[in-house]
Amino acid sequence: MRTKGIRTAVTLAAASSLLALTACTTDPSITENTGGATEGASPGATEQAEWFDQALYDEQNEQRSATFEGNPDEPWLQYIAGDMTDTSEFASEGEHKVCFANASISNPWRQTGWITMNQQLQVLQDEGVISEMETRDAKDNDNTQIADIDYFINEGNCDAFIISPNSTAALTPAVERACETGKPVVVFDRGVETDCATTFIHPIGGFAWGIDTANFLTERLQEGDKVVALRILPGVDVLEHRWAAAEKIFAEKGIEATDYFTGADPTEIKKIISDELATGDIQGVWMDAGDGAVAAIEAFEDAGKELPVMTGEDEMSFLRKWQETGIDALAPVYSNFQWRTPLLAVQKIFAGEEVPAEWVLPQEPITADELDEWLKRNEGMPDGHYAKFGGEDLPGYPEVWQQRQMP
Amino acid sequence: MSSTWKAGNSFGRLPSTHIVYLVALLTLVVGAVLVATTGRNFFSPGNISSILTGTSVLGFIAIGQTLVILVGSLDLSVPYVTSLASLIAAGVMANSSSNILPGVLLALGVSAVIGLANGLIVAGLKVHGFIATLGMGLIISGYLATNFKGSFGQTPFAFRLVGATGLGPVPVSTLIMLACAVLAMVLLHRTRVGHHIYAVGGDLNVARMSGIRVQTPIITAHIICSVLAGMAGLLLASRLGVGSPTVGSQGGYDLLSIAAVVLGGTLLAGGKGSITGTLGGVLIFAMLDNIMSVMQLNPFVKDVVRGIVIVVAVAVYARRTILKRPPRFGHGQPEEPATKQEVAA
Amino acid sequence: MSRTLHADSGAVLQQNRAGAGERFRRTLLTPGGAVFILLVVLLAAIIAVNPSFGEPESFIRFIGRTAPIAIAAIGQYFVIVAGEFDLSMGSVVTMQVIVAGNLIGDDDAKVIPVLLLMIALGALIGLVNGLATTLLKVPSFIVTLGMMLALFGLVMYWTGGAAQGNPADSFRQIGRGGIQDVPVLGIIPYPVIILAAAAALGFWLMRRPYGRTLIAVGDNATAAALTGTRVWWVRTRAFMLSSLAATVSGILLVGYAGVHPSVGRGYEFTAITAVVLGGVVLGGGRGWLLSAAAGAFALESLFTLLNFLGVQSTWRDTVQGVIIIVAVAAAARSWQRRRRGSTAPARAEQHRITATSAKPAEGTEQGGNGY
Predict the structure, then answer these.
(1) Distance (Å, rounded) from C-alpha B38 to C-alpha B174?
(2) Residue-level pLDDT at A376
(3) Per the record, which residues fall in region Disordered (chain C) (predicted)?
């Protein structure tokens, strides 16, 4: 009987796996004490774990006014002075293969960065620094990204790893495994709970965003005014930090803030604002990302209400609507040009130049004074483009970004 | 499983499970060629391990989904059950190996309770499985979003070994998944409730009239499905080292598992199908993903390919079955559920 | 699809033979009628929380913004009553939104040609869904799931994920504008008019032979085929109606919200939920078109009520989940009650019909068997 055969085979396989534990191939890097804090014993005990972290808040608050080393015309190479990693051991001639484990390109911010990264790659390939970049895209899935990193370690034949982690804690062991290969590892955007990487590249961070935006709004609003906070989705640390900082400042200044999750869907945003306007006036709108900002402004227009004080993002659609309506606004920036930095870091590493252990990139909001300049610099770009993408000197500019060509 | 590939009959007379594995074989051959063109080896241990790892999580969920679909229902709540189980397991274990057993039991226990609730809503309140489990998924998703901020808890070293250990290139997690598949087969073909699952899925009214208590198989299938989704959550907790409130929905396991089940030849309306076919469907998906990743296909194009493959693969045997009606139960299976045959007659 | 809820075919026939007054009374007690009661209760609750919602202008605007999902629900109704699913709806909406954004641009002259192209695309997608379901015999759940993945992937690949920008204002007026200076109401948004037209058209269609055949096909495809119905063509047209409805929703949403790849996400599930809330039975053959539209309004009212009540944003999913289950469970009970009350001949007829369908039907869910 065929099925019986299968059954027997499978049962045998399962049983033998228990017997053969000595012959098993455990990943050597899984060690007893990986990872950070252990939380309470039952889910109930720490359910209300908050995103707010005073130490990180204070640190990022200071970094907002820090001096950055390097040429301000190349902000993607600037950093805050601090510990440097010595990379002389990696110094070597010739072309190197880079393996890139990407979390996803599922939103316009990541897509814009991905385009920029590929153009930067082209430059380094032409210069003979990088032979090729093999990319695996995890489609926002932790489990897939872990498998992707393991695949690179086993099969990729990589000279260096670039990892843009999908989430912090879950990817930590996999990043550690990559580190243990002895090859350089560059982590960027979201972090991991280990400092084994050669360099960790990121803009100042979510708390700085929250402080910039909430300060802007509270300076212009009175105590008791109402702010509607439009958030994309819960549970993503870079986004949660933005709100955690802003929420704290709003509470301190007596601003009434109501938050909603919108999934970045302008339809949802418009409905939410319309409903809020039906119950009372709104003085301010806060967003944790600029997608759909236009819909929020249009909701005020359609309801015939006075336009709010608002913070969006350096997404073109928001900047254009800002100029068109002349609202009082601020465009915080989660520096999109950071997508260039990892490959440039790899170049430095193979040249044996030291790199910052934690490479903190500038993160400067666009203010009303600079609005016209940024719009001019990005003329002809699609609405989903980000003004501070930092690729003006790369090959293919501006067509590649205008046509949004990506491999 | 390779024995199913030896099918030498003319195509039209093949049972759909054979065709599933023929499609899998085709994927394998095409994949091996394509992968070879990039200078890689499809059959290298690292790649095989990567493919099999890809089958584990979806495998658990798809096995459960098969039972639920066989009984004529659906389960769209699986991703959230998976996330919840990973959180409970990691939370209870809290990096202490003495807590592994309580963590596993509590995670599976809660999953079973959710499955029970699903089953009772479907069988007792007569709510269509689509809506019942969509609603249940929303309920859990709200709970997760409210109570868990990002990843939570930690699984101890011993537990993480499960996700990181392999027998040669075969991950232990895949073996556990296959063991679950065997148990599900035994349940379906050797037990009364298994036969009743086929009967109820085939025709609820006829099953009822022939004296089957139709609630029992529906509820059982839902409980098992949720428990297997919980198993997937445990595996993810083991691989991630932490629990995560989004790990289930990240995978899109609800629709993907249904697609894998149908790809495996199970009738979406219930009453017909097999676990073996489902495993074939899962394997096809895993190989497809692996090949496309090695080829570095644009992630959006991957979705296009996936969408087309799902439809075309199902079309291959769905159309054939209409042209040549096979016997209601696979040939060469005298031990097939007798109840069902009587019922259908 | 599933047979779990399949039962009472005869009762409906019985019902349709009753007189008009009697029918209205009975109608309110059916799931298809009960959704109107649910809707009234929800609207009353909203007005109680926020009286300004009851003002004519706010209310007409509410109808206007609910129009896209209500139209989608009407489209989905045709497919569900034929015993199928359309999961590709959300991707069709997204595609149409992006097509409008990228192809129209700021050029008013392109509005009409692109509009025609969008309608053609909508019809084509419906045709492909329908033919793959009926001729290739692939279950519609799978066909439309595949279509959902493939279409979204194609659109994202084509646009690199981001649309160029919002289309010309003249195009957006369809979804954003309205007839100004109307007495009492203040404004009649165009979406309200389009919804009314779509509902009237749908209602008319369901009274036509096509509508009757569609329900017959959904109830029992074999029986319908035996009476000479071209089942494949009836079903295919249902898919085309669904995709066209999604196209209209997309056109309205471009106006209402603007262009973004996330517009339309989850629309398929919202539309199916709305249809089911409207008392339409998954599996086909039962339910009313206007109830499906009312289901969409009930769902939207629920979201609005949650907004007004200030329910914590993370708990909304849970509330929505509970209400869907409770509403559908209540509906199922009421169908059951009606069945118990139905006449003996109706019961007998129902048994006869279900017994027929116990044989492997010439339906679409023919997989295979074996191990």
Answers:
(1) 27
(2) 95
(3) 339-371
